[in-house]
Write a structure and sequence with these properties.
The chain is of the alpha+beta class. The protein has a domain of 136 residues. Helix content is 15%, strand content 31%. Strands 1-2-3-4-8-7-6-5 form an eight-stranded antiparallel sheet. The longest helix has 15 residues.
Length: 195
């Protein structure tokens, strides 16, 4: 009995390894493809990521540019001041010029140190919530924070993102003390020595 079972098992195994197709009876219908499944419905709008905000101001276009290049892009400043800046870590003193420009999207203050736009502040018009809209605020000035949701540093009045668009840091500052729930400005420091 065991010999018969082993024989059937070996025959079954060998017949499964055969290269020949089994014959189908003449009356059997030809094999058909399985019915195609309808395409999956598109995801609803509620699960799609929110569209990226359109930049209202191009901070990349003026960062590290000369006063003449910035004036060509933004026009004449509405305010100007001059002073002395301490470069870090050398603690060398150097003169600076700070210009404020009016832009349709908000006020732009630029500190020119060593002849280039080294520190840039943008005060957006509109209602941006602090700190929830920090990444959105950076996007509005043309900065790409990538997929980072969390800042590199948090304080009660600002959040800091380091290395955004190859800048030393970007601060998103609240409207303390009057409007702590609102974003007052986005500040860019282009290089470590201008912090």
């Amino acid at each position: 009995m065991k010999r018969t079972l082993y024989t059937f098992a070996i025959l079954a195994l060998l017949s499964g390894c055969s290269d020949t197709q089994p014959e189908t009876p003449a009356s059997a219908p030809p094999p058909t493809k399985p019915a195609e499944q309808p395409a999956a419905p598109a995801e609803s709008a509620s699960t799609e990521p929110a569209p990226k905000p359109t930049a209202l101001f191009d901070i990349l276009g003026i960062a590290s540019k000369s006063e003449a290049d910035v004036e060509a892009a933004l026009g004449q400043p509405i305010e100007t001041e001059a002073g002395e800046w301490t470069l870090l870590p050398s603690e060398e003193k150097t003169p600076f010029t700070r210009h404020v420009y009016e832009h349709k999207a908000g006020a732009v203050a630029i500190m020119f140190i060593e002849g280039k736009a080294a520190r840039i502040s943008f005060e957006p018009k509109g209602d941006l919530r602090y700190p929830d809209d920090a990444v959105k605020a950076m996007s509005l000035v043309g900065l790409a924070a990538g997929d980072r949701d969390a800042p590199d540093f948090e304080a009660p009045h600002y959040v800091r993102y380091e290395g955004v668009s190859n800048f030393f840091y970007v601060d998103v500052i609240s409207g303390l003390p009057d409007s702590p729930e609102r974003i007052r400005e986005v500040k860019v420091v282009t290089d470590e020595k201008y912090k």
